[in-house]
Amino acid sequence: MSVKRNILAGWSAHLITVLIGFFLMPYVLGVLGDSRYGVWLFINAIAGYSGVIYAGFGATICRYVADTASRKEWDRLNQFVSSIQGVYFGTASIVMLATIVLALLAPMLDRWDDVPIRDVQFSMLIVGASIALGMIASVYGGVLIGTQQLHHKRAIEVVCGVLRGGLTVLMLTQQWGLVTLASVFFAVTVVEHGLSALLAYRCVPTLSVSPRNIRRGVLRECFGFSAFNAIAVAAEYLIYFTDTIVIGAILGPAAIVPYQIGLRIAQMIQMPIAQMGEAILPRAGQLAAESDRKRLGRLVARAMGVSALLAGGFFVGGLYFGDLLVVTWIGKSYPHTHAVMCLLLATQVIAMPMVIVRKALLGSGEVRVPAFIDLLEAVANLCLSLILIHFWGIVGVAVGTLLPLLIVESSILLPFAIRRLHISRNDLLHEVVYPVIPCLVALTVYCEVASVMVPLQGWVTLLGVTAGGGAVLLATRLLMHLLNRPMTIAKQTLAT
What average pLDDT does the chain have? Predict the structure, then answer.
């Protein structure tokens, strides 16, 4: 019951926060303009690198809280939480020091267009303080996750999402736009972690987060567990924030906006599939522990097929109706946004099935090799983006994201996963390739007909076309299942 409740809470929170962010973005962009909004995205991308110095402790606290809570070892739970918060005090100090240095150096970067440098500096300081505070207080969210109170954490995320949207609409003005956005960010951070702390103490009445609970042996154990996870986290942040940093530093903040619009659309598919991966993780661990290799390989292949179908559907839809979506959503078109969006959606066709693979590998205890593969991909992404941006602008940055992912994941990570997870070639063909291709062909035919026959304007058209495309995918997949069912039954009969 708890698992179902947590999954439903996760999906509900994701839907609400996506809708809030989706409709808030064009409002903020309209008030601030491309330059100011681009500066805001640039500042947040720089701030996002602070996640690297979390050093993988986010997963560590969840893991040890879950373990100690299940054993009812409350003193040891307090030692882990307090020790990790002690580490976060140190990393928060580094964040604040780096923020002050960046604010002082900001005038030297001549990429702020017409935005007053004082607004940039104040915004940097406020965002840095928000991140430092959130870093220290994040242990309470870890307690909620570790004690399987994920529904509480998702409820807090929904409340804070609504609060952030309301405050932004209520307080945002063009004159103090950046500082207002940064102040709203800080206020919501205080509310979010205050609620997390309150609920954490209610869920674990014996919780005590104090310096006197810090233990050297506990710190040593935490660092040992988080080492390889830290590499994977660092690679993830490098991949996630590199594009925005590169564009802002070389082309200026205004150039970030058309790229970010395409990126935001491509990211809409990530969270549902990531949550599918979270569901796969414990099951993969169980099957690996039981040495049930055949079922493990088939489970991963099936989940890869579902994720490839969803990502492929988004990609085909983006090719045909991406421009309509951007104009309807933002209110105007950008020259290169559609190309960027299609390239980034193409990356999702590859990346999303590999999210399933990564979670299954993690559940099976394979962390070292995937971590270094992720780091290789992140470095290649950075190098290619820095080169290609000088030739093709923001489209070159998108290509710099696609190529490393295509090459590294298909030629290195996938063969490794096939061996470790015992995925047979037959399962890959029958669960990923054969069912997905006819579905995407049918969707392409549908989109071709719809783009010619349907008047392309407005949300009603978009929602209707999207619903029709979903129905085509579902009907084709069901048909493929029915056609393959006799063959599947025959194989099972022969096997028995």
Answer: 85
